[in-house]
Structures are given as C-alpha cells and as structure tokens.
Design goal:
The protein contains 20 helices and 49 strands. The chain is α+β, with helices and mostly antiparallel strands and 962 residues long. This is Glycoside hydrolase family 3 protein.
Length: 962
Amino acid sequence: MSDSEASAYTNGAVPLADRITDLLSRLTLEEKIALLHQHQPAIDRLGVGTFRTGTEALHGLAWLGEATVFPQAVGLGATWDLDLVRRVGEAVGDEVRGLHHKDPERAGLNVWAPVVNQLRDPRWGRNEEGYAEDPLLTGAMGTAYSRGLRGDHPVFLKTAPTLKHFLGYNNETRRDRTSSNLSPRVLHEYELPPFRAPIADGAAVAVMASYNLVNNRPAHLSPLINEALRTWTTDEILVVSDAQAPSNVVESQAYYPDHAAATAALLKAGVDSFTDNDAKSEITIARVTGALERGLITEADVDTALRHIFAIRFRLGEFDPAEANPFAAITADVINCSEHQRLAREAARAAIVLLKNDAGLLPLAAPRKVAVLGPLSDVLFEDWYSGTLPYQATARRGLTDRLGDAVVSHEDGVDRVVLREAGGDRVVTAAEHADGAALRLAAGQGEFDLASDQGQFDLFDWGNGVYSLRAVANGRHVTAAGTEGAPLVNNQPGPNGWVVRETFRLAERADGALVLKHVASDRYVAATEDGSLGATARTPAEALGLSIEPVRSGVDAAVAAAREADVAIVVLGNHPLINGRECEDRVDLDLPPTQQRLIEAVHAANPSTVLVLTSSYPYAIGWADEHVPAILWSAHGGQEFGNALAEVLLGDVSPAGRLPQTWYADDADLPDLLDYDIIASDATYLYFRGTPLYPFGHGLTYSRVEYRDLRVSSPALDADGEVTVTVEVVNTGAYEVAEVVQLYTRQQRSRVKLPVRQLRGFAKVRLAPGGSATVTLPLRAADLAFWDVTQGRMVVEEARHTVMVGASATDVRATAVVDVRGEQIAPRAVSGRSLRAADHDDYCGIALVDESTVAGDAVGAIEPGAWITFDGVDLGRGVRAVGARVAQAADSAGTITLRVDDPVRGQVVATLTVPPTGSGYAWTEVSAPAADATGVRDLYLIFDAPGTRVAELRFDGPGAEA
C-alpha cells in the first residue's frame, strides 16, 4: 500500500464512508466487539482514543460540576422561541466542548439531549424533560436545540445530539414492563414526527431507544429503528441503548430466553451502542461473542453498528488535526461565563407565562411593601438532569436586589415542629454543627424547651403524604443514607440524588401515635437503646411512636407578613425529585395540601396576591384561578430565575411565555396514563372536547394585541401545493410585547376522526406600544395529511379546512377557509384480498401486540366481547369464505365472529374457530364459509375470549353468478 492508502482513515480529504471502511478493515474482531459498549476502549496501535457515549445536557451541562443552568426543557418549550432555544443549545454545546477540552475522560461529546417525547399527559414523571404536547412544536424545539448543540460547521460536529427516547415513552412507573399501544395513525401522526424533524434537518445525529415496550415488543427491538428513522436522512444515525435496557430484554421483560440471543436481536434491530452494566464492558463483550459463536449474528452485523458509531466519532473531529476543527479550541473558560449568564436570564424571562391578570394587578407599581412567601420563594432546585447551580437568584433575592431589604419581607410558610416520643418526655434532637450527626432522643425536663433549635424541625409538605425534615439546628435536611438501617442524619442541603433518601411519610398507628416511614428504604424510623434514630423497623408496631407538636405555624407567619404588605407574592410548586420524576409518575394534579392552605389563607389576608407557580408540570389550580387576581407559571427556571421574575413582576418586560401543554381543571379530564391512543381517548389539545383550565398556547401580556385582516393567498390548494396565511397584529397597549401568533387548522369532514384543531405554524413577533407587524405563515397541503389505514400511507384528503389564527388553541381571533383538492378515499375492496388486523378503524377491549419478536403488529383480545371494526369495507357481490391467521396461547379454543354494521345485532358473516396454538407467536390459518353479505358495510370482528390473536384476514372472492 502507498502511504496515503495506509492511512486513509486519517486523511480528511477522503470521503467519510471510505475513511470508516478503511478503519474497520484494520480492526480485529475482538477490537470491534469491545467498541460496541458505551465505554469504548482505546486502540493505541491505530491512534483510536477512548470514547464514551452519554454526556447529559438537557438544559445545561449536567452531572459534572457547576455549569450554566438554563430553564427546564418544558420551560424552553414555553418560550415558543426557536432562535432563543437554538442559542441555548449553542451555549450548552460550548460548555460541553469546553469541559471536554479540560477533561475529556469526564465530558464526552455524544450528548444525550434533547428529549422529544411529547407531553401527552401531565402526570408523566418526566414531564419537565419534554418541550410540548404538540408534534410540530416539539419537533421544531428539538431541531432548534439540536442545531445549537451540533454547531453550524459543514463537516465537524460541536457535539453529537441524541434524541430521547424512541418510542411511545410517556410513563415511568414500571416503565420497562408496560406496553404503549400505538395504532398506525397515532404512530405516524403523533409519535414519529417529533423524531423525524431533527433527523431530517440534520440537526440530530443519534437516537436513544426507550425502556418501554411498543405493542408488546421492547422498543429497543422496534423494526422502526431501521425502517423509519434511518430512512429520514442519508447520514449515518447512531442508536444507543438506555441504561441497562439491553439486560432488561432478558430480565425484567423476559422477551428473549438468554442474553446472547437478545444481544443478537438488538444488533439486528439497529442498536449500535450498549449502555449496560455501567463500565463493565466485559459483560457486553461476552454476550456479543456468544451470539457470534452461536451463529446468531455475523461480523457484518458488528461492522454495521460500528459504521454508525465511527461516523459520529469522525464528524466530531477525532481523526483530524485539531487545527482543522473550529470547535477543538473551545476551553473551559466558557463555562458559566457572563454571556451565558445573560442568556440564562433571557431564557428564564421568556419562559414565564402569565396565566391570569385581573384588574391589572401586574405589573407592580412602586409597592411600598412586598411579602415574598412560600416554600419555593427563597430556594432554587436542581432536577435530575440539571447542572450544579453556580449561584441561586431566587424570587426573594431577585426582588430584594431591585427593591431593597426594607421593602421586601419573607416567610417560607413552612411549619416548625417538635417530634416528641409518644407517651414520654423525650424529643428528637439534631446536631448543630454543619456536618450534622445522628438524630437522637433527648430527655427534657418535663416540657422540653421548645425554643431550643436542637429540638426543632421544619416540616415540608410535598404532597401525596410525602414530607421532608430540615433541622433548625444547622439548616440541613434529614437523611438516612447508605445501607438498610442507616441512622438518620441532618447533613443534606435538601432532597437529592437518584435515590432520594430525604423523604418520609407520616402514618397513624392503631394506638394513635404517629410513625415516620422512610420512603427510600421502605422502613420505619425506630430508636436504638442509646436513643439514636434509624430507618430499621419493618412494621409500625416496631417503630418509634411520635406526637408532632407545633412550634410555629408557617401559614400564620405568612398571613401576618401578607397583612403588612401592599402585595403578597406566593411562590409555590414542586420539588423536581419528589412525586413526579424519572421512575415515578404523578398520581394527580393537586397542589400539596399545605401549599393549598397557604395560598387560600394569604389571599384572605391580602386580596392583592400574586401566585407564582414554579413547577415541572401543570397543576389543577381551579380555586386559585377563581380567586387569586394574578397567576404566573414557570418551569424551574435555572440560576437566573429570580432576576427574570423580578423583571416581569415589576414591568421591565411584558410576559412572553405561552403554555406548551394543556392545563386541565381536574385529573378526571384525563384518560388512563397508559392509554396512548390520543384519538380514541380525546387526549391532548388536539382531541380534547372539554373546557381546559388553561389551553395549549395560552399566555397573557401586559398589553392587548389585536388581529386584523386575515388573508389566505388562495382559496384552494392542490395536494402538493402551498398557500400563505397573512395576518396583521397590532399592539394597542402601553407595553412592548412579544406576541406568539399561532396558526391552527381543522378539517371539516373526513373518513376518519381528526383533531378538533391542530397547530400548523407559529411566529413570535415583538411589538412596540402602538406598533404593528404583518405575519406571514406558510401552510402546505402535505402538512394536512393523515395516515390512511386503508392504503398504509399518508393521504391528503379532499376536504374544506378551517384556517384559524389566534393567541392560543381556543383564543381564535380570525378564521378563513381553504378547499384542498386531495384524494377521495374509496371503500376497502376486500374480495380476493387480505386485510391487516392492526389496520382497523375502531376497537374495544383489545391490545396491539407483536406478531413476531422481529416485526409486525397484530390484535389481541384482552376481555370477552372485545371487537375491532373496519369502516366502509366493500364486500362487492359477497365473499365465499373468510380466512384468518390466528394464534391462541390459552389451552381452550376461541372464536372470532364477523358481523356487519353492528357488533351485537349485525348480521353474522362468518364464525372462525381459533384452536389452541400453544403460543401467541404460533400462528395458524383458519377459515369458514361466509354468509351472503354484499356492498359497502362496516365489518366487526368480535372475540369471545381473551388471549385470541389475529394478524390478518383473507376474503375469498364470490362464486359464479347465477
């Protein structure tokens, strides 16, 4: 070989595909296998360095020390500002590069962000990680953030953004065991588009598979990895597993009998990098080796995965001179630099949503006294994917810095208590020094001196019966860290960590005493002989009985401060690591009880009350909406939140945020959390027919904006055409505002159930007082398409569409109509043809299931009398017989009855007997003669028993005419 041929993979002039091929040709099989794990070893003889996938960067560089903390992703979604979100992505990408320059072993360049799972249900524990409940807005935000992370160089990547989590992932509790039922329409119209947009744009270069199953098949084994997402771009896409998910396929999911078989299936399905067993790559190596030895995969399968891996590594500049890569020069000086701090404040400001503002209470006009109240008023929280806060500009600090200590008073509204041994005179005490010590029972002299800090605790109510305790003695929270039975120690700044060990539940024992249950260990708090406390008891009977004696009412203290103030600012919300986080879904939409009492009492004391909600998700705040004159919401806003809030409250800027998801009046408005069929369940703003507390897209400003002169460039539109929608917006108020002009459409008639309204475009425009702007938004006919189950493709249907422009999904200011010259969907002619069961139109009592472990969807009955229907089936002159491919895992036979027009009273066309097949994957063919039924009819399949599966129906043609 010539020198150039010998080092083609190091030659930047050689096409990328050829460089990868050259490098692969130089690797041994053993070296290749080792590179499939998350922790990829160095291959010194070839100059290949170590590489690790997975630096967390959801809204800032996370887990690696202090870095700029921007608002949570749902807060970035609330900005509706693509340029801002892109700039935040740029800043985070710079900080990742900067730390990588300083410490490449700690900070890898494959970043696991953004999350483009949609906020389908506000009870999802990871609600804070997504951008919106809408596919267009989510996809646009994900593209903008990814574009910032990757940089704008035509060759090199700043970082390699990884979209999370593919696919149908919106629940946490038992997430690796639950299956998301995705019908073809929900899949193609709702779930896939937010992933497609950043990949098709070239902004995202990698994808992480999700923990859940989809239609009973682990998402890590989804055929859609290769059949869908890799078809959206000509670039190589890296697919990484989520942590421990490859092992789940055998262990918690029991989908494959052994790890070698599962590993082979994962590679063939398109998983390239195994995030499994932490840094113990030898386990993955052994599994891949076993799969090769058993002939389940070939070296070519390994090479395919490595092509995807190395495509990213090459584009990150690993095999090129540093001077050729403009991102290689970024240093750690950029981390939390002043420019990023200013950007963090801009983002926090733009993420604040004004939900209500009666009687013009906001902005505040030179208040003489402001009471800043509530448990979130003087603290900022980090979530699981936050960076470490470099500083905390809290609500109290932001207002104090602007107005001065003499104007701002503060109370956190938290009860202070003494924990006394039931029936005794001993109380629980805590050490005063900063590092804390084991909590102990100390004897008092009759009545314990309640003024002693050592015997007092602040009791934080986080809702759903979950509390945390902060020792007054040193201001630190109580934890029970380490192994089971660890002592209770007051040494934590607050609830923290993957396993939160700082939360407790209170329960009443049969004898009337209260007991503390440590949530993380599932043990009750008991006292040892020497009086120290630990989470050691298995039952309430073994636990330390307590009585809780109030020292100071947090509500009363807040009320007193509110009475003395011109205005009360009450800051409420959630702790991102409690009652709704990764691995734990919310159970309702309620505020914690103590917080609800606080806002009611403060408002009664001072009607000029502003409620500031700081939360990872929506709340059902019907009482507050009815009574409190002004309400603001922000996601946890990062290090600059308090400064941004002060600017909004004091009128420096008008609120500019808009809700990225519906706020419901009650959780009764929501379907089951595991019901992913938004169409059938009328879920999200797209299909919800009730009255929301606050609609998708809602957000007020300090001015009134009028919408005038809506125009559509053409009254008709071809299926491959485009029109422009133009509207004038005028600021008739006295404040400069940023208005989010939102374009929605509704199809007036259709073969299928379609959204009540759907976002088709938006623009954020700034308007000076009295100013106006003309906003033009494109509307493509292709964007109006839906998935037609009769043809298995997206279809633009011939129909009239209402075009709606306004300030939210329900605040429509102007409308027009456009006639779309699309297709007329014909009835399904079935004579002599087959029909996939998964392509039904409606259903009851069934689940979508995996036809095989590799590919295909089928229908399985989960209750007697379950049915599916195919609307508008053209039976022609009738059919001779009906056949089906069926399976029955149960020991007894089942039946499938075919009726027309009605599942109970309709004419029986055929009855199919389904014999026991021993497995849900053991398919067999059955058939039966058909009764005389002709013409276009709605066809129902009714299952008599659970466990029966059907994959396909076949209709034999009619007999000879008489």
